[in-house]
Input
Amino acid sequence: MNDKEIMENLLLNLKGECDLLMHGAIESATPAVHSAFTQAFNEALTMQSEIYAKMAQKGWYPSEVAQPAQISAVKQKYNTVN
Output
């Protein structure tokens, strides 16, 4: 397994962890449990952000900048009342 595959696996696992922690916070029954899940969620988000940034820096997770016309089209699509 090469470095890129390791980073992809880490990122994928952290995304899953974030999902579980978010739902744990939403479903928590007490403030203490909510706080524990929220703190763990924030830590996982930080790790996810750092891994993403490193992957993007190495060109392993390319992203493109959305053009203003694309943003306007999406806004219009979701602002339309059906």
Notes: The mean pLDDT is 93.
